[in-house]
Amino acid sequence: MVDDAIAYPSYKSRLPFYLSGRNMASLKIKNTALIISSLIVGGIISVAAYRYFASVPKMAAQSTERKVLFWYDPMKPDTRFDKPGKSPFMDMDLVPKYADEGSSENNQGIRIDPAQVQNLGLKTEKVQMGRLTYSQTIPANVSFNEYQFVIVQARSEGFIEKVYPLTIGDKVKKGTPLVDITIPEWVEAQSEYLLLSETGGSATQLKGVLERLRLAGMSEEDIQRLRSTRSIQTRFTIKAPIDGVITAFDLRTGMNISKDKVVAQIQGMDPVWISAAVPESIVYLLKESSQFEISVPAYPGKTFTIEKWLILPSLDPATRTLQVRLQVDNKDEQLKPGMNAYLKLNTQSPEMLLIPSQAVIDNGREQRVITVDHAGQFVPKQIKVLHESQNQTGIESGLSEGESVVVGGLFLIDSEANISGALDRMRQSNASANAHPEK
């Protein structure tokens, strides 16, 4: 028993050790729970931190994301689409238009990325004062001088004794005989004159008879012959009154002739007229004959003297041209009516603002240019064109001397101005200026 007691201590003697063991186990459990709790809390914190820091770039990206206003086809910028996709006009994707592109409400211009501007091959030129030079060759034609047109008549009834060998197209000199005629009325008047002069007729009576002969068509030469020879003439020769070309002549020997019958029509050849149709837009520039040069294909290299010129008053509504008529010396009669000629105009306009013609955008309703301001923005401006010549355009209003206008890469910049609303702002500004003009 003693041995057993020694070998196996009693329950009471082992109780402190037992209690001590339970406390240690409990402590271990508590420590384990604390560790697990710490791990859980740490995990939660880590997940939350991860989510927070992961969302920061996304939030930053969302805050800097560009707002798309609409999509469009760069080749047809007037049409807008509310979502991306393929263009219905071209085989290409629609391009977004961002809210931060273009300009502010108080700015008329647009801003384009410098790299894109360089890729467009942008070219600008300054608006400057100068004169438009006109050097234009216009088809012309040679015609008769209508101031030298005469109609030859007997002015009394009679019959033709002789027709001289002439026909249409023949050239005649002044005094060339055309026909010999007999006119009874002239014979009767001569008899009356001689009778009065022999029977003591008054000077008034004699003068009256001679005047009646003049009115009846008797030439002054025949009248003076009557007074000097004091003999009756029965046969009279009608002669050409001017140098020229016969344009009408159809009488025959033995024909009766009435007082209204045309004996001949004669057209003068020196000087002749050269006429050309000049555009109405440059008529105001024609001021002196030195501005004209005449050339005729039939006589290459020959120069012609312009005696005088004028602009006819009527306008051709179909071609919007005015006729310029030049009177040209033709003593040698080389210029023939109907010949082709050319009229070369050499003149300059008054001083005005000039820009290259390729800078002008004309859609039929308005004319505009794209200018570059001091800040490098592209600003559309409406202009009013005066005239254009030799790739230069004169401007009446809309620009100032020294401004820069775009002459290269114009189409894409103008499309961008249309997309960004710069053209609408330009039109609104012009409408406001027209509604409230300065007094």
From TrEMBL:
Domain CusB-like beta-barrel: 271-348
Keyword Membrane assigned: yes
Residues covered by the Heavy metal binding domain: 70-97
Transmembrane spans: 32-53
UniProt domain CusB-like barrel-sandwich hybrid: residue ranges: 150-267
Keywords carried by this UniProt record: Membrane, Transmembrane, Transmembrane helix, Transport
Entries under Gene3D superfamilies matching the protein: 2.40.30.170, 2.40.420.20, 6.10.140.730
UniProt superkingdom: Bacteria
Residue span(s) of domain Multidrug resistance protein MdtA-like C-terminal permuted SH3: 353-410
Segments forming domain CusB-like three alpha-helical bundle: 185-234
Pfam families: 3HB_CusB, Beta-barrel_RND_2, BSH_CusB, HMBD, RND-MFP_C
Family: Belongs to the membrane fusion protein (MFP) (TC 8.A.1) family.
Protein name stated in the entry: Cobalt/zinc/cadmium efflux RND transporter membrane fusion protein
